[in-house]
Write a structure and sequence with these properties.
mainly alpha, Fumarase C, Chain B, domain 1, 61% helix, elongated, binds arginine
Length: 457
């Protein structure tokens, strides 16, 4: 059944129907469509626009449609233009005349705006929970690795020693900000568009505040033209999802590097790795690579929707139907990636010895050696030069700073004493860095406590 056949004298060309129809993808929000319709008719009856009996017939008809779809008894047929037409056609088929009143005081433009908002709001909650679960896994790994030393990198060159807890703590902050963004979006978008009509409101005495509160919104939107053509919240969502993917892809990249034969910092669980069809020795980090790769899809959706919306005149235009596939794909991608990444990271083994060894043999304590001289009264710039000479000497001999004898230290500067070994030991280098945010055990313990409060653990 078409919702608009009256004015037409010819059948729609089949290709036009196929091109125009959105049912193949907007069926995704059948639950929200029915939820919105029930709220709408509840309001219509309260306002005396339809009778209570009509409301009850429509509501039970809609509920039975919902139940049958969920049970798999009622299949969503692709001959319909969209999910709205499908539900209305079935309602009329089931309850007859009363069903024809469902669309009173409503347009598909405010209806679809509502459905998409309800769907997005639900999914924002799911993505938030998945992000929180990942944060809990990161937190657990941090807790047991406060003294797992590893090199910290800049330019992918060993720089200064840190701990695994500190390194993971950086990702904790990123995903915490991601959740903040999701919350901001939920707050800003939570205004109800239903009752805006096609673009200019309606002549019926609708109670938009009432529908809004029935559906858990903070209030009605305040301009009907904007209400039916606002897709900002989807662009914000796609931007926040892109940022989550960017964070995941950085984390994946590190895991791929750490899992390589050259690094061997971590070993992925067999359940989260794959093999090669030709090379029997291979155990590949496919999941990490795929998550990294799927980042492109989500960025693509953001760019696509920004471009769809660019230059669109007010109010609703059919272009806006394009918002759905991009948004759905991005939401599903991010949900899948968060869940898989979480599984991969929480089953991964850390080769703590290899990490500590790597921290030891990359001159990651050179800054601390310079600081040692500064504490003995040498100006930092001179100390920097002296340690530079020491590093050159060690490279030549293929040894670490702490493997030099005291005599060798003294040949370069007489200021060195026995306490240099303690000053440049890994434990000292890390645990002396105790300003908040630094890798030292004391500072990290403070941060862990704050994270615990944040997670309500
Ligand atoms: N499938 C349409 C969409 O998603 C529903 C709104 C149709 N409105 C219209 N005026 N043709 O945008």
């Amino acid at each position: 059944m078409k919702l608009w056949g009256g004015r037409f004298t010819k059948e729609t060309n089949q290709l036009v129907h196929n091109f125009n129809a959105s049912i193949s993808f907007d069926q995704k929000f059948f639950e929200q469509d029915i939820e919105g319709s029930i709220a709408h008719v509840t309001m219509l009856a309260k306002q005396g626009i339809i009778t209570n009996d009509e409301r009850d017939q429509i509501t039970s008809g809609l509920s039975s449609i919902l139940e049958d779809i969920l049970k798999g008894i009622l299949e969503i047929g692709m001959e319909h233009e969209d999910i709205h037409s499908f539900v209305e056609a079935h309602l009329i088929e089931r309850i007859g005349a009363a069903g024809k009143k469902l669309h009173t005081g409503r347009s598909r433009n405010d209806q679809v705006a509502l459905d998409m908002k309800l769907y997005t709001r639900d999914e924002l909650g799911v993505i938030d929970s998945l992000t929180k679960e990942l944060l809990v896994s990161i937190h657990t790994i941090m807790e047991s690795n406060l003294e797992t030393f590893m090199p910290g990198f800049t330019h992918l060159q060993k720089a200064q020693p840190v701990t695994l807890a500190h390194h993971f703590g950086a990702y904790f902050e990123m995903f915490k900000r991601d959740r903040g963004r999701l919350h901001d979006i939920t707050k800003r978008m939570n205004l109800s568009p239903i009752g805006s009509g096609a673009l200019a409101g309606t002549t019926y005495p609708l109670d938009r505040d009432y529908t809004s509160s029935l559906l858990g919104f903070d209030g009605p939107t305040l301009n009907s033209m904007d209400s039916v053509s606002d897709r900002d919240y989807l662009i914000e969502l796609l931007s926040a999802l892109s940022t989550i993917m960017m964070h995941l892809s950085r984390f994946c990249e590190e895991i791929i590097i750490w899992n390589s034969n050259e690094y061997r910092f971590v070993e992925l669980d067999d359940a989260y790795s794959t093999g090669s069809s030709i090379m029997p020795q291979k155990k590949n980090p496919d999941i990490a690579e795929l998550v990294r790769g799927k980042t492109g899809r989500v960025y693509g959706s953001l760019m696509a929707l920004l471009t769809v919306m660019k230059g669109l005149p007010l109010a609703y235009n059919k272009d806006m139907q394009e918002d759905k596939e991009y948004t759905f794909d991005a939401i599903d991608t991010v949900k899948g990636c968060l869940a898989l990444f979480n599984g991969m990271v929480s089953t991964m083994k850390f080769n703590k010895e290899v990490m500590a060894q790597s921290a030891k043999n990359g001159f990651t304590n050179a800054t601390d050696a310079a600081d040692y001289l500064v504490n003995k009264g040498i100006p930092f710039r001179d100390a920097h030069g002296v340690i530079g000479q020491l590093v050159l000497y060690c490279i030549d001999k293929d040894i670490a700073l702490e493997q030099m004898s005291l005599e060798e230290f003294r040949q370069i500067s007489p200021v060195f004493e026995e306490d240099i070994y303690e000053a440049i030991s890994l434990t000292t280098c890390v645990n002396k860095r105790n300003t908040i945010g630094a890798p030292g055990k004391q500072a990290m313990t403070q941060v862990l406590k704050l994270n615990e409060e944040y997670l309500n653990l």
